[in-house]
Write a structure and sequence with these properties.
The complex is a heterodimer of chains A (117) and B (108). Chain A is an all-beta fold and 117 residues long. Chain A contains no helices and 11 strands. Chain B starts with a strand and ends with a strand. Chain B is mainly β and 108 residues long. Chain B has strands spanning 4-7, 10-13, 19-25, 34-39, 46-50, 54-55, 63-68, 71-76, 85-91, 103-107. Chain B has a 6-stranded mixed beta sheet, with no helix packed on it. Chain B has a 4-stranded antiparallel beta sheet with strand order 1-3-8-7, with no helix packed on it. The A-B interface holds A 35, 37, 44-47, 49-50, 59, 61-62, 95, 97, 99, 102-105, 107-110 and B 32-33, 35, 37, 39, 44-47, 50-51, 56, 88, 90, 92, 95-102.
């Protein structure tokens, strides 16, 4: 069965770097794009961008240009989200979600990131 | 960017009641690329209705979706306890692929 399994919760200090993983199984990884979605505590969903798993080309929403980076380890069917120079407002749950053609059909369980001094 | 406005933000319904929530886009969205997700506290969102009116696998038939252009809606024909959740509309028509702010549905 198709699964996206994300890495565990993270506690970081402002200015540090975090790298969140999303391991896919049950399908051919390079056939479907991978999206990233942010959900701040008590807030709604915010689309961050996506990465073409075939070419490795990332696309970022405007708000997420600069400190955010999507990457791949194709041999391990894994996508990564790296956030540099962490700020308090990065505290959120981050989801990876597969683009199934038209919509996001499978989601990871979410990774909770807490940024606090 | 396309802004999706959901209303109401919060609503409550009695068991058995008919429920309708709306999603209004700031510019036209192809119906093929307008979707709804259900999210319960502590869980990831689940694809619920795709391409305006198609129920995702396992979604009860009491749910339906409709709309076109800038106006879309999700309807529950008869509210059940398990339907209490937050519902988000989402457009994958034009980047950035925005979400609505959600409608939180509670049991009255």
């Amino acid at each position: 069965q198709i699964q996206l399994v994300q890495s565990g919760p993270e506690l970081k200090k402002p200015g540090e770097t975090v790298k969140i993983s999303c391991k896919a199984s049950g399908y051919t990884f390079t056939n479907y794009g991978m999206n990233w979605v942010k959900q701040a505590p008590g807030k709604g969903l915010k689309w961050m961008g996506w990465i073409n798993t075939n070419t490795g080309e990332p696309t970022y929403a405007e708000e997420f240009k600069g400190r955010f980076a999507f990457s791949l380890e194709t041999s391990a069917s894994t996508a990564y989200l790296q956030i540099n120079n962490l700020k308090n407002e990065d505290t959120a749950t981050y989801f990876c979600a597969r683009y199934g053609g038209y919509y996001l059909d499978y989601w990871g369980q979410g990774t909770t990131l807490t940024v606090s001094s | 960017q396309i802004v999706l406005t959901q209303s109401p933000a919060i609503m409550s319904a009695s068991l058995g009641e008919r429920v309708t929530m709306t999603c209004t886009a700031s510019s036209s969205v192809s119906s093929s690329y307008l979707h709804w997700y259900q999210q319960k506290p502590g869980s990831s969102p689940k694809l619920w209705i795709y391409s305006t009116s198609n129920l995702a696998s396992g979604v009860p038939a009491r749910f339906s979706g409709s709309g076109s252009g800038t106006s879309y809606s999700l309807t529950i024909s008869s509210m059940e306890a398990e339907d209490a959740a937050t519902y988000y509309c989402h457009q994958y028509h034009r980047s950035p692929f925005t979400f609505g702010s959600g409608t939180k549905l509670e049991i009255k």
